Amino acid sequence: MHPHLERVLFTEEEILERTKAIGRVLSADYADKNPLLIGILKGAVLFMADLVKHIDIPMEMDFMAISSYGASSKSSGVVRILKDLDRSIEGRHVVVVEDIVDTGLTLAYLRDILMHRRAASVKVAAMFDKPEGRSVDISPDYCGFPVPNEFIVGYGLDYAEQYRNLPYVGILKPEIYKR
Ligand code: XMP
Ligand code: MG
After folding, report:
1. What is the CATH code of the structural domain delimited by 12-148?
2. 49, 52, 72, 86 - which has most CB atoms within 10 Å?
3. Is 112 a catalytic residue?
4. EC number(s) in its UniProt entry (predicted)?
5. ipTM rounded to 2 decimals
6. What proportions of the chain, in percent to the nearest 5, are helix, strand and coil?
7. Residues 159, 172: contact at Cβ < 8 Å?
């Protein structure tokens, strides 16, 4: 285990198991829909890569990079698009692939943007869900694991851009982000 972690929440094996299960469900739900999976950079990169390997129907991928407006570490709900999609999503069945849903503000805003672009449907697959953090009534349609209201890193999730490469997920020691 990385020395900056308090404890591991989910091992690489557990994460892969859940990812495979979500891939199977998406394959059934989107058979003949040629879904467009939109990975949200950078946090969702590991989840996206593992997930698509277990989707066995025709599908496409695209990516968006977004950042919360303002300097505050708290989500404001207004997102700035740093990298937009390559193509129109009009009439497409979209699955947003996210690392974690916390307040839900980012997701609510993103979903509005995508619906406004006249997608046929917009659903959300999130590897982690922090239900205690929620400030708007939105939940992922497909979810890997619920997590406690603590700061977690690994499997794409960062603190100051570090730890994204850990193949497992754990709780960061508070002394690391308080110093
Ligand atoms: P919302 O708008 O749902 O934002 O509050 C979700 C985004 O907040 C980040 N986030 C985290 N990142 N560990 C992280 O590394 C966490 O525990 C955590 N909780 C929220 C993340 O960027 C996510 O997309
Ligand atoms: Mg982050």
Report:
1. 3.40.50.2020
2. 52
3. no
4. 2.4.2.8
5. 0.94
6. 25, 35, 40
7. yes
How many angstroms is it from 101 CA to the middle of ligand 1?
Answer: 6
Reference 97, options 131, 69, 62, 53; nearest CA is: 62
Instruction: Point out the ligand 1 atom lying closest to the alpha carbon of residue 40.
Output: 24
Which of 7, 40, 45, 99 to probe ligand 1 with, by most ligand atoms within 8 A of CB? 99
C-beta of residue 84 within 8 angstroms of C-beta of residue 58: no
Taking ligand 2, which is a single-atom ion, which protein residues have CB atoms under 5 Å away? Answer: 158
Tell me how far the alpha carbon of residue 32 lies from the centroid of ligand 1, in angstroms.
32
What pLDDT shows up at residue 72?
52
> Out of 50, 99, 102, 129, which one is annotated catalytic?
102
* Token pair in block for residue 8: 């591991």
Residue with the bigger pLDDT between 76 and 4: it is 4
pLDDT digits (tens, 9 = 90+) for 72-108: 555 666 788 999 999 999 999 999 999 999 999 999 9
Cis link prior to 42 (omega < 30° from 0)?
A: yes
- Maximum separation of any 2 CA atoms in the chain, in Å: 51
Q: How much is the average pLDDT of 133-150?
A: 96
